[in-house]
Amino acid sequence: MKFATPIAAFALLVGSASAFTSPTFTKASTPLRMSDEAAAPSYTCISKEEILSSPNTIEFGKIWDPLGLAEDGSEETLAWYRHAEIKHGRVAMAAFVGWWAVGAGLRFPGELSTGLDFASIPSKGLEAWDAVPAMGKLQMFAFVGLIELHDELFFSARGTHYMRGGIPGKNMVPGLYDPLGLHKNKSEEAKARGRDAEIKNG
User: Fold this and answer.
1) Which of 93, 122, 132, 180 could share a disulfide with 127, CB 3.0–4.6 Å?
2) Going by DSSP bridges, is the β-strand pair 111-113/58-59 parallel, antiparallel, or unpaired?
3) Sequence-ordered list of residues with C-beta below 8 angstroms from that of 85, at least 6 positions apart, any chain
């Protein structure tokens, strides 16, 4: 019984760490029996070949993938990677614009919090972040978390999930990416070219 506590703690750590790993799906090596047909997935995920074909990532005669991530897991795993890649690229581009705006001296009118004017925020990016109160930082993280949650919910409710045959990188939160509706009437081909540009620029 004296080993029960260390073993329980180790199991808890292992279980917690699994929450930070990317989803990996493996295909069963056993043949499909008639009784297993009902459990077989009823969807077709976008193929690895289709994901890697756009945009053109051929560098030095082969696909640019120095870490071999394209071979890690199944089609669902690669679709998850591509969706995360596009979202992170968007965040990086937005962060660059925000960093530039603060460095250029642009400020919102009014107060960031009680007794703290936007105009008093330092012009250097990291110093500006340090000047934001802890509650303001928590609100930022909560806002991002809500966007992530609603993105997953709307992918399931308003379309096909990107790991179930949908389009990785397609924004599903209404009004977030295109509040003015500038891309509303664009063709699917034009939207695909825009996502390819995001991947390369991000």
Assistant:
1) 122
2) unpaired
3) 169, 199, 202
Nearest to 164 by CA among 174, 151, 155, 175: 155
Beta bridge partners of 117: 111
- Where do the DSSP E strands lie in 73-166? 111-113, 116-117
Phi and psi at residue 92, to the nearest 5°: -65, -40
Burial of residue 190, with CB atoms counted within 10 A of its CB: 0-12 exposed, 13-18 middle, 19 or more buried: exposed
Question: What is the pTM for the complete model shown?
Answer: 0.64
Smallest Cα–Cα separation from 44: which of 79, 96, 14, 10? Answer: 79
* pLDDT tens digits for range 29-68: 445 454 444 455 566 788 888 888 877 777 667 777 888 8
